[in-house]
UniProtKB/TrEMBL annotation:
Keyword DNA-binding: yes
Pfam families referenced in this protein's UniProt entry, alphabetically: GntR
Signal peptide, first to last residue: none
UniProt organism field: Caulifigura coniformis
Organism taxonomic ancestry: Bacteria, Pseudomonadati, Planctomycetota, Planctomycetia, Planctomycetales
Protein name as it appears in the record: Bacterial regulatory protein, gntR family
């Protein structure tokens, strides 16, 4: 069994709670502002602000732009009554940043006294890992639940069969029932990206998917094909499923560009794929027929000051709002209430850099 990992933002929040206890602060006492907290934690102000937000959701602190930060409740060490296991692929978390801190803040806002922890799926046998985790959850004195992020069929099926509270953050695999899912509107993302590329003069498309194809990829592929057919461009699509290796992507995209007859548009499922595509374009831009290829992304998870280099589809709702929806879906299951919807589709919009 792989050791559970406390998310970094939760670790920072726990350190702040420890500092409040050490100072002996009581309800109504003032606490450090964001800059002072960042200095105390030796982190950036963005990370400190997220941790303070998490403590607001735990109802430990209250913050006001004018008055400052104050303790709202006695900070004592007490076991959480619920524990939420966020099951995530560690490689996807590190490479693409698939899980924003705001999502955890949102879950915590819906479930203030729940403990959040990461459980990273192994690269080999995730069945044994999940079976062990479910057994542990069933034996726990806490009421355990799960949030499944970019999860395999095995993970979804085992958790669904366990009967434990769970939410899929993403698209459910075919045949999976009983677990509500919260997913982006991938079909709408495909439509707006094809429209953008068509308006840019692209008459041929390349669709770059991740090496391991997931249910959401099928939705993206189907809608790209439908959108091309609506524009009388059937048969103008090349699909590749590639690892997040810049050289592999560069060589594969370059080989397609070599035989292109019209201006090319490239839809990338992830940022690493877009970086590889751009590397191929940079080499061949002078010789490209119909003008330089145009690259877009269907998924972009980075947050903060970093600006995307390419146009992409973005969720309209904030990570905090999405996290709250996930938290409320879990609460419905804890209370044996039927969910309002088994499938929550999150709307997206087109974002164009410098536009």
């Amino acid at each position: 069994m792989l050791r559970p990992v406390t998310p970094p933002i939760v670790q920072l929040a726990d350190r702040i709670e420890g500092d409040i206890r050490e100072r002996g602060l009581q309800p109504g006492d003032s606490y450090l502002n964001t800059a002072e907290t960042a200095k105390m934690l030796k982190v950036g102000t963005a990370s400190a602000n997220r941790a303070l937000q998490l403590l607001e959701q735990r109802q430990v602190l209250v913050r006001s732009q004018r008055r400052g930060t104050f303790v709202t409740a006695p900070v004592t060490v007490k076991p959480a009554t619920r524990r939420i296991n966020v099951i995530v692929d560690e490689a996807a978390l590190k490479m693409e940043g698939v899980l924003a801190d705001g999502l955890l803040v949102g879950i915590q806002s819906a479930m203030p006294h729940a403990q959040l922890r990461f459980r990273f799926t192994p690269t080999t046998d995730d069945a044994e890992f999940i079976e062990g985790l479910i057994h542990e959850a069933l034996q726990s004195s806490q009421r355990e639940g799960f949030v499944l992020v970019r999860s395999s069929l095995t993970v979804q099926r085992l958790v669904a069969n366990s009967g434990l509270p769970a939410v899929i953050h993403g698209t459910a695999h075919p045949s999976i029932q009983g677990i509500p899912c919260v997913e982006r509107d991938t079909a709408q993302a495909a439509r707006i990206l094809v429209d953008f590329l068509a308006e840019a003069g692209c008459r041929q498309l390349i669709l770059l998917l991740r090496q391991h194809v997931m249910p959401g990829d099928h939705i993206l592929l189907d809608q790209v094909q439908h959108s091309l057919a609506d524009r009388d461009l059937s048969g103008r699509l090349t699909v590749r499923c590639l690892p997040p290796d810049l050289e592999v992507v560069r060589h594969e995209v370059a080989s397609v560009l070599k035989h292109a007859r019209d201006k090319i548009g490239v839809i990338c499922r992830s940022e690493p794929l877009a970086e590889g595509a751009q590397a191929a374009v940079d080499v061949r831009s002078v010789r490209a027929r119909g003008g330089a290829p145009v690259i877009v992304m269907s998924d972009y998870y980075r947050s903060g000051p970093a600006v995307a280099r390419w146009a992409y589809s973005r969720l309209i709702q904030s990570p905090e709002e999405i996290g709250r929806q996930i938290g409320h879906l879990l609460l419905d299951q804890y209370a044996d209430r039927p969910p309002v919807s088994q499938r929550v589709i999150l709307p997206v919009k087109l974002v164009v850099p410098d536009a």
